[in-house]
Amino acid sequence: MWDFAEMSSDEVASLRARYEPLTQSIRELIDAALHVDADNQVVDQAKAQIDAAAELLRAHPASTRQGMALTPEGESIPWDNLGNGIRNPLAPPLVVEHTGPTSARIDVELGAAYEGPPGHVHGGYCALVLDQILGEVASRGSIETVAATGTISLRYLRPTKLGRLHVEAEIQRTEGRKIFITGHIADEDGTTVTAEGLFIVLRQ
Ligand SMILES: CCCCCCCCCCCCCCCC(=O)SCCNC(=O)CCNC(=O)[C@H](O)C(C)(C)COP(=O)(O)OP(=O)(O)OC[C@H]1O[C@@H](n2cnc3c(N)ncnc32)[C@H](O)[C@@H]1OP(=O)(O)O
Hints:
Bound molecules: Palmitoyl-CoA
Helix content: 25-40%
Radius of gyration: 19 Å
Largest sheet: 6 strands, antiparallel
CATH class of the largest domain: Alpha Beta
Structural class: alpha+beta
Order of helices and strands: HHEEEEHEEEE
Number of strands: 8
Oligomer: single chain
């Protein structure tokens, strides 16, 4: 059904435009559900509408699922995956901006859905965000150099406040297929988590 290897950039853009707003609406639904304080009637009505939407979507199943795909031009499409999948509302809304051949940054807002300690981001999601940006920088956006996490080490300096976060990553050195890379997350008060990773470029 989705044969990205056969698609033009325009066709991919049109699919993105179809599904990205659905993903964002589901994220907003989760946020609304986490903030609601209503009576049985309101909650029952919302549940019925959500169940109806799920039934509508289930009536049109995809024949394949793909975590990530490539277009003929070599553009990578994060489709269903948890790190930054366009169609996955559990993925934080990450947009990785490559600031050079060996570095990148993310500016993202993480709200109630990502809470661990009260008012703060769950440590596992901090790890996911750092793993994602380190992996993307290490992979350098190419199928030829896709790198997997070999080892990642995190240091939680202090809790990360929910809200706007800034994330950076930079390659420190490479040894053959091994890429040594560091990164950090900062909230409005400064750095909260640092990461050191060893990513390994997959054998082709
Ligand atoms: C369609 C696609 C579009 C793509 C478009 C691009 C965008 C793409 C963005 C991706 C962004 C992803 C961001 C999330 C990244 C994950 O979450 S990946 C998932 C978590 N990681 C895994 O599942 C990896 C599981 N492990 C493995 O598959 C294999 O063990 C590995 C890591 C590939 C290494 O296997 P291998 O290639 O056989 O490695 P091997 O030859 O044994 O060892 C090579 C060297 O690495 C060292 N090494 C091996 N394993 C380790 C380790 N775990 N720790 C430390 N050192 C190690 C060895 O000691 C050796 O060192 P030297 O002797 O050369 O000094």
